[in-house]
Amino acid sequence: MSRLKLFIPLMVFVVLAVFLLNGLERDPNAMPSALIDRPVPVFSLPVLGDEARQVDQLILQGQPTLLNVWATWCIACRVEHAYLNKLSGQGVRIIGLNYKDDLVEAKKWLAEKGDPYELSVIDANGRLGLDLGVFGAPETYVVDRSGTIRYKHVGVIDDRVWQQKVLPEWQKVQ
Predict the structure, then answer these.
(1) How, if at all, do strands 94-99 and 65-70 pair?
(2) Considering the domain boundaries, does residue 62 fall inside one?
(3) Can you give the pTM of this predicted structure?
(4) 162 CB-side CA count, 13 A
(5) CATH number (domain holding residue 108)
(6) Residue range 83-139, pLDDT digits in tens
(7) What is the number of structural domains in the chain?
(8) CB of 148 within 8 A of CB of 39?
(9) Is residue 138 part of a domain?
(10) I need a labelling partner for 102 at 20 to 30 A (CA). Which of 18, 23, 35, 75 fits?
(11) 28: in domain
(12) What residues make up the domain containing 90?
């Protein structure tokens, strides 16, 4: 029996390793959002570059929209930004959600790298992000004409992701 006790740490290690490896194989986009098929949460926030102007969730109604969570501190957002500029140039409506960011840096970034957003909502304290269930940036939501979230993508949108994952959802809301 005492020799069997020697194997307990090994068994614990094996069990933990199996759980960790299983977690590494999961796609973060496979985590379902509780907001799919629900309206965008109620909010009233200022607009980046026109901070005196407040907008609410109604800004996401009337036409299909990508709601893109971004920030200057987000390295992956830098990778994604050029592709968002391309999509915007093709007529895709994109509303930005500037998440817990420095406003001076955010304005500078858009001036230097181009602004794919019809407007960017300032979520300085992260409340809207929390209501949306944001894990981090970038994240992108496909919102239909009624302001209902139809799809959530966690991570960078590039040509492959757009063609294989987001575009099919975008076409459904057209």
Answers:
(1) parallel
(2) yes
(3) 0.82
(4) 12
(5) 3.40.30.10
(6) 999 999 999 999 999 999 999 999 999 999 999 999 999 999 999 999 999 988 999
(7) 1
(8) yes
(9) yes
(10) 35
(11) no
(12) 35-173
